[in-house]
Specification:
Chain lengths: ~170, ~110
């Protein structure tokens, strides 16, 4: 089993200058939700330069397509043009599962999410800061996705948001 | 403020502007903005009216209160983002290791 190491995943994306916003369960964790997740969801920008950078990062990560039948992944040609035509990619990498979503449910993708996102320091030695979606935006996408696993965590996320808002006052 | 987040979420998911939402309920865009920023708290009835105007049906259910969640939330919020991430990743990997052992015993 590959150990889940989202910091190493994010360092690789950062080293290749990929523009992206962290969303999903890991964004919720970084925002203070006491939950556990085993994959990293990111929303990349869609420009050609960014897709080139993303391709280089995924190649370095040894990304393979994750399927129900083959959790270790299936090799696929990692190319900018191919990445561009998929709405989402569920991948397994050297550092664990990575989901790329160009337009998560209930959002308009990177330009929509980056407006509210903030830079959060998630590792030191050396320091690593990444753009993280706001908790309201994470809730918005999970509410829109409407899958059972999303619905199950929504009450906890809403309560975290309520408590975080109360503490800021 | 829950109402503020719900109104903003409904409007953004509908892909409409504050002006358009205001037009649908006969209110100024500035009023929508004040509600979304939490400067003014609308009544529950008004919140539901706005959600419906965005094309969604609000749903409310009562559940038993669970103070344990609040304890965990406050503990997580007291940590830095870096500490929250490290804690969650350690938990995920520990759960993964337990699942692997369980699978090996079944096999």
């Amino acid at each position: 089993m590959v150990e889940f190491d989202p910091v190493s995943l994010l360092r690789t994306l950062d080293r290749h200058d990929v523009r992206f916003v962290v969303i999903g369960g890991l964004a919720a964790v970084i925002r203070g939700a006491p939950t556990v997740t085993t994959d990293l969801d990111v929303v990349p920008a869609t420009g050609s330069e960014n897709l080139e950078a993303l391709t280089a990062a995924l190649t370095e990560l040894g990304a393979r397509r994750r399927t129900v039948d083959d959790p270790d992944g299936i090799a696929f040609p990692i190319e900018p043009d191919l990445l561009a035509v998929g709405q989402s990619w569920t991948l397994v990498t050297a550092f664990g599962d990575l989901d790329l979503m160009f337009q998560p449910e209930g959002t308009q993708g990177y330009p929509d999410l980056v407006r509210g996102a903030t830079t959060e320091m998630i590792a030191d030695d050396p320091p690593l800061a990444v753009m993280v979606a706001t908790l309201p935006d994470v809730i918005r996408s999970k509410e829109a996705a409407g899958r059972d696993k999303d619905r199950a965590v929504l009450p906890l996320l809403r309560r975290t948001l309520e408590e975080a808002t109360r503490r800021r006052r | 403020m829950i109402s503020a987040h719900l109104i903003r979420e409904a409007r953004l998911r509908a892909g409409i502007s504050q002006a358009e939402l205001g037009r649908r309920v006969g209110r100024a865009a500035s009023a929508i903005g004040r509600w979304e920023r939490g400067q003014v708290a609308p009544s529950l009835e008004t919140t539901f009216e706005l959600i419906r105007a965005a094309g969604f049906e609000p749903s409310v259910a009562l559940a038993r209160g669970d103070q344990h969640d609040l304890v965990l939330i406050r503990r997580a919020l007291a940590r830095s983002p870096m500490e929250r991430l490290a804690t969650a990743v350690a938990a995920a990997n520990a759960l993964g290791a337990i699942a692997s052992v369980a699978r090996a015993h079944r096999g």
